[in-house]
Each structure stands twice: as C-alpha cells, then as structure tokens.
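name: query_chain
kind: protein
chains: 1
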Amino acid sequence: MLGQRIAIKIIEESSYEKDVAFKVHIGTPQLAPDDELLEQIQELEKKPYKELTELERVMLLSKPRNGELTTMEVRIRESMEFKATVDKLVAKANTSAVLGTSSWREQFRDALTVIPADESELDVDNDEVEEVPRCVDYISHFICLFWKVLFAFVPPTDICGGYVTFVVSISVIGVLTAVIGDAATYFGCALNVKDSVTAICFVALGTSIPDTFASIIASKQDDSADNSIGNVTGSNAVNVFLGIGLAWSLASIYHMAHGTTFNVEPGTIGFAVALFCGEAMIAISIMMYRRNAKSIRAEFGGPVISKWIHASILFFLWVLYLTISTLEAYDVIEI
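structure:
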C-alpha cells in the first residue's frame, strides 16, 4: 500500500474571519492484528540482525514504515473571494436579514441606520462609491422608525441558536396582528360598514400585511417561489384549521359544560367563500400556466409583458371579490 486516506474531524466554530492551523503527526505504522505476517515479523525482530538469513531480512524490510515526512501542518483560512462577496452584500443590505444579529447593540444600530432601498449587484468593483440613501429612503426610514426600534428589542439570533428569537418574534407579530385586526374593526364601525364587509376588506387586509411582507422578502431572497407561496397557503391553513377550529372548539366545550348550545349564524359569508374558491381556481390555473409555458417557466417574474398581465389579473380578481361581496352584503345583488 503506497497511500492511505485519513479522515480528520474539524469542529466548526461559526466564526466569520478564520485563520487557524493545526499539525497532523503520523506515528509508527503497525501491522493489523489479523495480518498473517505479524507473528513471523515479531519473531524475527527478537533475533540478532547478524543471525538473520537473506530471506528473513527481506521479510523485515516488508514491515510498514513511514516516509521522510511524518508531520503535516494544516491551515484553514477564509476564502478572500467569498469574504469579499459577503462584505459587499452586508454593506448594501440589512445585516440582520443576511447573517443574523449577535447583540442588541447591533440591532438598534441597524434600526437607526438609513439603508438604501436598491440593492446593488454582488459582482461590483471594490472601488465603486458607496450608494447614498435617497430622499425616499429617509422618508421610509422615519415612517418605519417606531416599528424598527420596537422589533430591535427582540433577542438576538445568537441566543439559544435563534429559538428565543423565533418564539419572541412570533409572539410580537401575533400581538400586532391582533391590534391591527381590532383597529380595522373599529375603523369599519366608524364608517358604519357591515361586519361582513369589514371582515373581508379592512380586517383581512390588516391581518395579511405581515404575510405580504414575508412573501415579498422570501421572493427576493430565495431561488424558488416555494417559500412565498407556502407562506400564503400555510397562513391560510393556520387561520382556518387552528384559528377558527380552536376558537369554535373551545366555545363549544364551554357551552356544553354549561348546558347551552353554541350556534354561529352563517350570514352572507357563504357567498364570499364560494366566490373566493372560484377565483382561487383561476389563480391556480395562472400559476400552472406560468410554470409550464415555454416562454415563461417561472411562477414569479419572467418576461415583462406576461409578468404585468398576470399581476393585473390577480389584482383584478381581488378587486372583483371585494366588489361583488360588498354588493351582495348590501342586497344590491340577490343570490
């Protein structure tokens, strides 16, 4: 055997800039316990070298041994090309969205920093001038400043592997969604709008804002549309199966324990649900067409003309849904 591969386990330290070195020392090789020549060689080693025959000396030379080099130094350094690419990305984008955050200080610094909205390409030259925030960026920053500072109190991602960040973020989003839903309900009452119209218009729009921004971020950062579409379907599944199902189950159990009956009148929501299912089939058909069409083959983006046409169709479906549902709720359309 002229060579052998040796597997060395390297423990990842999750450090960004890395320059570590270690040495691998190869000791004296030994024959395997089940080797046929092991006993013969051990007996020959006990004899004086002068008493060995020529054949026995050749057999001793067949014993495994090291070459001239028995020590090797291994040095692990970061890739300068990859590091430069990440540095450009971090400089142009929000650091917390790319690499996570390691401290509250970093989170508050990012929250108070005005970042340009347009992200430059990663292959730009190092000598390119840093992009300066525009007036629109400053306006957007000051409008969202309260929410940026509020979410900066969320624990950093380095605590407990990010699990604390996930739980606290979900809790804060849930509270904000409930507040937005109640505010939308009060807004509908102030305008003297029916509850059914308030539910499908103001409340639905207010509670869907977090999902909308999550889908936008996922569509920009991911290579596929799976997370964006999965976020929408998963959110609806939680609303239907957990939101309505859990609330109605607890109400039914409560009324049953007190000897009463829990009844929910359908109202006009049945027509709105049927209309939504019909438009959902149209949206799914558009998605399947975009996936299979040779000129597009993408659920997001694609050629400019087809992109705007399909986006306009989906926006028109939403407006049509609100319009017809509102007219039916006010008995303008009788079904």
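note: The CA atoms of residues 214 and 228 lie 8 Å apart.
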